[in-house]
Amino acid sequence: MSIIETIIKRAEENETNYFGHEIDMVPNVIYLALYAIIFGYLCLMMIKSRYWWFNISFFIGYGLEMLGFLGRTVAANGKETELALYAVQSFCTTVAPAFIMGGVYFLFGQLIFIHGKQYSLFRPMWYSYFFITTDVICILMQGSGGGISSSSGTLQKVGNVLMIAGVGAQVGFMTLFLILWTDFLFRAYFKYSSQEEQRSVLGKRSFVNFFKLLFNASSDVRSYKANHLDEHYDPDFYHIRHHSPLFGYFPLAMTVAVILIYIRCIYRVVEMSQGWNGYLMVHEVYLMVLDALMIVLAGIIFMAFHPYWIFGKENVLKAKDLKAKKGMAVNALEYKGLTERTSL
Questions:
Q1: pLDDT in tens, 269-298
Q2: Is the model's pLDDT at 36 over the cut of 50?
Q3: What global pTM score does this model have?
Q4: What is the pLDDT of residues 318-339, one digit of tens each?
Q5: In the chain, what percentage of residues exceed pLDDT 70?
Q6: Which uninterrupted H or E stretch holds 338?
Q7: DSSP letter string over 161-217?
């Protein structure tokens, strides 16, 4: 039985709690407040920074999350019987992560440029174009599925299947992204391992060294990155890689944030597949932990690791400039000399 059919059946039986569970006011208010803080921060960044694609994607994504939990909070006042409130929270929280991932895909393409095209399997912008396109497809599938499922008869089932397929496709594309992201990091860390392993044990290609370099935890690792690996990276973007001490932790931050969103998407696929009477649907705690918490933590990570703080105040990585790659960065040696003279 589809979700919509079950709703209609419950309505006929005067069991009209569309959410499938009694909403606990306290955790929903807490999450609403957290989403409002993240959204407010993104509003300020929309004014302060020029990373338009990232800002707009996150602005929409966390704006939708905030609206979704606003609907849940209002419904917690004994209004679980209002279908409009359920529709708001269901649509907004289902579609929002796709917009958030759109911002992450944008950052992936920029990081490839910052390190060098030689560390990429494909042209850097192809990653952004491909994953952003798939993101739009997933959003359309989920949105249209939600609209179709409000119909009756066979269309209800088609709508539900389309929504599940949309979230499932998102999981599939995120899996591909994680594979390509890991491949990029391995190349960035070990492409010249035959040379570097003679200079440091960290140069040897291994999973142990990969995680040491990813976590960037020790002074030896940070020194190796700055004095050895950085020699192989694109000198035009030396100033960006050394703009902030947080840059060394940025790959880890992105990895953790994507895994959190990935967990959330897997949860939603399972939840929607179980249907209205499914175990996950009728137990609110899973929504709070495996959905809301994952997206909040990802948002907090990108509050600290917003490209404004990591790449610099000015967005020098615009598409037209990346194609021309002229007049936007200083040479690594010039930058080192400049910083040395400044420190004297």
A1: 898 888 777 899 889 999 999 999 999 999
A2: yes
A3: 0.86
A4: 655 555 554 344 444 444 443 4
A5: 84
A6: helix 332-343
A7: HHHHHHHHHHHHHHHHHHHHHHHHHHHHHHTTHHHHTTT-GGGS--HHHHHHHHHT-
Amino acid letter, residue 260: L
Chain centroid to CA 277: 30
User: What HEC string does 74-110 produce?
Assistant: HHCCCCCCCHHHHHHHHHHHHHHHHHHHHHHHHHHHH
The CA distance from 294 to 279, in Å, is 20
- 189: closest CA among 264, 267, 116? 116
Q: Is there a contact between 59 and 100 (Cβ–Cβ < 8 Å)? A: no
Q: How far is CA 268 from CA 21, 49, 87, in A?
A: 16, 33, 16
Q: Where are the alpha helices (DSSP H) in 242-278?
A: 250-274
CATH fold of 3-343, please?
Rhopdopsin 7-helix transmembrane proteins (1.20.1070)
Alpha carbon distance 338, 88 (integer Å): 54
Cβ 239 vs Cβ 330: under 8 Å = yes
Residues 54-92: tens digit of each pLDDT:
999 999 999 999 999 999 999 998 888 888 898 899 889
Instruction: Give the CA distances from residue 105 to residues 6, 135, 140, 143, in Å, rounded to whole numbers and listed in that order.
Output: 37, 9, 18, 21
Residues in the chain: 344
Residue 244, phi then psi, degrees to nearest 5? -135, 140
Beta carbons of 100 and 62 less than 8 angstroms apart: yes
Contact 53, 99 (CB under 8 A): no
CA 4 to chain centre: 30
Domain boundaries, the chain: 3-343
| pLDDT tens digits for range 95-137 | 899 999 999 999 999 999 999 999 998 888 788 789 888 988 9
Helix or strand holding residue 126 (H, E): helix 124-148
Closest by CA to 21, choosing from 60, 95, 72, is 72
